[in-house]
Structure formats: structure tokens, C-alpha cells
Design goal:
CATH superfamily of the largest domain: Reverse transcriptase/Diguanylate cyclase domain
Shape: elongated
Distance between the termini: 64 Å
Strand order of the largest sheet: 7-8-6-11-10-9
CATH topology of the largest domain: Alpha-Beta Plaits
Helix content: 40-55%
Strand content: 15-25%
Structural class: alpha+beta
CATH class of the largest domain: Alpha Beta
Radius of gyration: 28 Å
Number of helices: 16
Number of strands: 18
Number of domains: 3
Length: 468
């Protein structure tokens, strides 16, 4: 049980690291938090709205995969934007959350279990540094429910749950949020998370022994003292003619202090069978190992698919905008080290709105996929192609000056010009090019390429224009 819990937490930490690297750890997001940390309230309100809009899809994605909190904090430890509760901000977390003190005062990554102002969970908290100045932090966390779901997946024929120290909850949670918790039956010193309890009670499987008052009363006599001293518990309990294996596994916070438990109640038929026949033991151990291997393989495959979905555009299968900026940051850093040029091409399908209006969105989707394929076949393996938005694509060309970039852009344009669609005819694209100057940020290069694209449109479309 301990190994399963640790394995789930590590898997989600890897996913969290990926989300941070692909969507958060870029100069645009860090600059916004820097401005909020050192700006006035009007600027903070604007940036809060901007962050909410820009990272809405990222939040929706991780929420689908059981992440519970997505929370930005300012450099002084003030809560800036809780995606899970946008109306609550401005409270300082340095004095109630050790993770906040470590990240915002020591400027280092922190991970571990911790009770929050609203929810508890396993937290992955990252410092954000903008141009050498601490700009704040971002916290991504999972609910204990994630752990329970994976444990149920291994064996649903049991009762699983989570309890938290009542004193920890009282000291940390907002007063108006404490109704999210209720005292558990086996010890007055611990509370259930009502939301988690409700989800598990709604499951069609499981034993639901935590609702059996007589079972809880018997169990309280056996474990109350151990829970008071915060000791782990593993014992056999006879109840109603059956034997149950009872486990309470400690949850330790960031300071390695025990603050709660995951519990499991399961009928003890397996252990009785082990004593009766060694062959059955070997068989069951093999089955359990296979279940673990299958579960780990499924988690690995699921994680790879989640990663693919997070970095690519679903329609065209090229990189999405967030991934582009992450890769662009890497390429600009490499260009600075090597002293090499770097160019950007903005590619826009001409009169794309007419395609949707006259031939329908299905044809529009086909045009976008074909265009992406033609561009991908026209650029080099070292180039970075992404869908920038709508009918617009962007190509980053490392080690490429504007003259060589023009050659590549014309290859793209000619390839697409030679493409035809049934019942519709052909399409063309306009392309704007810009070469990076000195060590400017990537947004400046993109803006100039966008100006060049506008000039290509004004000049009659189906042409490549280099920003002069």
C-alpha cells in the first residue's frame, strides 16, 4: 500500500513537472507575475484576468486528470489567483503554509503533502524567476482522492478513505471553508474531507464499512490510541463472522510530520488462504504482480497520451502555441550561446473564412490539416512548426538568416499553391518573415513577422514578405 501511494504521487509529480515546463515556465507568464508582484491593484486585476484566460485550457486539462489546485502566489506570499476558487485572493500564505515560505523565501522547488486554506493535497510548488528577480510561485496539486482512485483500481473489494488531523485543519483552513470537513467516527481528533467521502460513497463498488456504526465502534476501541499517537496501524479485526485486514498508513507533511492517514478495510480471506495453502499464496502473489504490472503499464501509456495531447494541436497534430513558446525559449538560448541567427515565419491561409462559409467547417478542417502537412514536409527537421491560432501557423528556423528563411518560405508557399481540393480548387498562403536581432525576446521577432505578414496581405496575398 505504501509503495502504491508513493508510485501514484511520483507519476503525478512527473505530469506536474511537464505542465510547468510546457505552460508556465516561460518569460511571458513570469513577466506577468513579476508585474503583479511589484505593481498596483489595477495592474493586478488586469493580469489576474489575463492569466485566467490564457491558462484556462491548461487548467481544464489537468482538472480532467484529477489535479485539484492550480494556484499562483506573488513574491511576498500573497495568494494571487486560485483557479479552483478565483474569488479568493490577497491572503498571505507565508505564515500558514511552510511550502510557501520555502518557495518564496528560499526560492526552491518544494513538494509534499500539505493542508491548504481550502483543500489538502500533495503539492508541487515552483518558484518563478524573471530576469534574476523572484516573481512569485505556482502551485499545482492533487487531491488525496487521486491516491484512492488508484488504490481502488488495484482492488475495489474494500473500503478506502482519507482522514486529516482536526487541529491541522482548524489552524489552516479558512473559517468559512471548514464546513468541507466533518469529524470521523473512530477518533474525534481527525476529520473526513466531505467531498472525497461523498465521491467514495457514491461508488457502486467497495465495502462502505465506514458507514457501519457498529463496525466503527468496534474499530475505535482498537485504533483510537494509535491514531492519537499518530502511529501506523495494521491489524486483523473480527466482525460479524468475518476477519478484516485494517490498515492506517501515515500521511506526512512537508516537514515529515504525520498529519493524517489513508485507511483500508478489507475482508481477510487472502491471509487465511495463505496459511492454508502455499500454492494459493504463490498464485495470488503472481496475480497481484500482474495487476501491478498492467496498472503501471496503463499509467505509463495514459501519461504518454496526456503528454502528447498537452503539447500538440488536436486537429493538425503539429505543436500548439504553448509548446511553441517552450521550444522557442530553448532555441533562443541556444542561439545566444552559439551566436547564430534565428528567423520566424508567420504563415496565414488566404481567404480561409470563405472556405468555411462556402464549403463548411469540415472542408475548413481538411484545409488546415493539409496545410500543416505541406508546411511540415517543406521545412527542416530542426525547424519548429506550430499552429499559432485559427488559420495561422508559425515556423521557427534555428541557425537561419532572413535570406535562407526566404528560400524555405517560398518552398512552403509553392507547395501549398500547388495543392487542390475536390469541389473547391486550390488555396494560397501569405507569409511574413523576420530575423532575430541581437538577443531580443521571441515576442519581438514574432511581432515583426506579423507586420510582414500584414504587408504581404496588403500587397495582394500569395507572397512572402521579409520585414525590413
Amino acid at each position: 500500500m505504501d509503495n502504491a501511494i508513493d508510485g501514484v504521487v511520483r507519476a503525478y509529480e512527473n505530469f506536474s513537472n511537464f505542465v510547468f515546463a510546457s505552460a508556465i515556465d516561460n518569460d511571458r507568464i513570469k513577466a506577468q507575475l513579476y508585474e503583479a508582484s511589484y505593481g498596483d491593484e489595477e495592474e493586478r486585476a488586469r493580469i489576474r484576468q489575463q492569466l485566467g484566460e490564457e491558462l484556462r485550457q491548461t487548467h481544464e486539462l489537468i482538472t480532467k486528470h484529477n489535479f485539484r489546485q492550480f494556484h499562483f502566489q506573488l513574491a511576498n506570499g500573497d495568494s494571487f489567483y486560485r483557479f479552483h476558487n478565483p474569488g479568493k485572493f490577497g491572503d498571505n500564505l507565508l505564515f500558514v503554509r511552510k511550502s510557501m515560505r520555502m518557495v518564496n523565501l528560499e526560492h526552491k522547488y518544494v513538494t509534499g503533502f500539505e493542508e491548504g486554506r481550502i483543500f489538502s493535497g500533495y503539492r508541487f510548488v515552483y518558484p518563478l524567476n524573471y530576469k534574476g528577480i523572484h516573481a512569485g510561485s505556482i502551485e499545482i496539486s492533487i487531491s488525496p482522492q487521486c491516491i484512492l482512485e488508484e488504490l481502488y483500481a488495484l482492488d475495489s473489494n474494500r473500503d478506502l478513505g482519507f482522514i486529516l488531523s482536526k487541529s491541522v485543519m482548524k489552524e489552516t483552513v479558512f473559517l468559512d471553508e471548514q464546513a468541507r470537513y466533518k469529524t470521523c467516527d473512530i477518533s474525534d481528533e481527525y476529520v473526513y474531507d466531505v467531498e472525497i467521502l461523498t465521491k467514495n460513497e457514491a461508488r457502486p463498488d467497495g465495502l462502505k464499512l465506514h458507514r457501519d456504526k457498529a463496525f466503527q465502534a468496534e474499530l475505535r476501541k482498537l485504533v483510537e490510541n494509535d491514531l492519537r499517537t499518530k502511529a501506523p496501524v495494521t491489524l486483523a479485526m473480527d466482525y460479524d463472522g468475518k476477519t478484516y485486514l485494517v490498515q492506517y498508513r501515515q500521511i506526512k507533511d512537508i516537514s515529515q510530520e504525520p498529519v493524517g492517514y489513508f485507511f483500508s478495510y478489507k475482508e481477510d480471506r487472502e491471509i487465511q488462504a495463505f496459511a492454508a495453502a502455499r500454492k494459493i499464496v504463490i498464485f495470488l502473489a503472481t496475480v497481484i504482480m500482474l495487476i501491478l504490472i498492467i496498472s503501471i503499464a496503463f499509467m505509463y501509456i495514459s501519461q504518454r497520451e496526456i503528454q502528447r495531447m498537452a503539447v500538440t494541436d488536436n486537429l493538425t497534430s503539429v505543436y500548439n502555441r504553448h509548446s511553441f513558446y517552450a521550444l522557442a525559449g530553448r532555441e533562443t538560448a541556444r542561439a545566444d550561446r552559439a551566436g547564430e541567427p534565428l528567423s520566424i515565419a508567420m504563415v496565414d491561409i488566404d481567404f480561409f473564412k470563405k472556405v468555411n462559409d462556402n464549403y463548411g467547417h469540415a472542408m475548413g478542417d481538411q484545409v488546415l490539416k493539409t496545410t500543416a502537412g505541406r508546411i511540415k514536409n517543406s521545412v527542416r527537421k530542426t525547424d519548429v512548426l506550430a499552429r499559432y491560432g485559427g488559420e495561422e501557423f508559425i515556423v521557427l528556423m534555428p541557425s537561419t538568416d532572413s535570406r535562407d528563411a526566404f528560400t524555405i518560405a517560398e518552398r512552403i508557399r509553392n507547395s501549398i499553391e500547388g495543392c487542390t481540393f475536390e469541389n473547391m480548387g486550390g488555396i494560397t498562403v501569405s507569409i511574413g518573415l523576420s530575423e532575430r536581432v541581437d538577443k531580443e525576446i521571441i515576442d519581438d521577432v514574432i511581432n515583426r513577422a506579423d507586420v510582414a505578414l500584414y504587408r504581404a496581405k496588403e500587397a495582394g496575398r500569395n507572397r512572402t514578405v521579409v520585414y525590413e
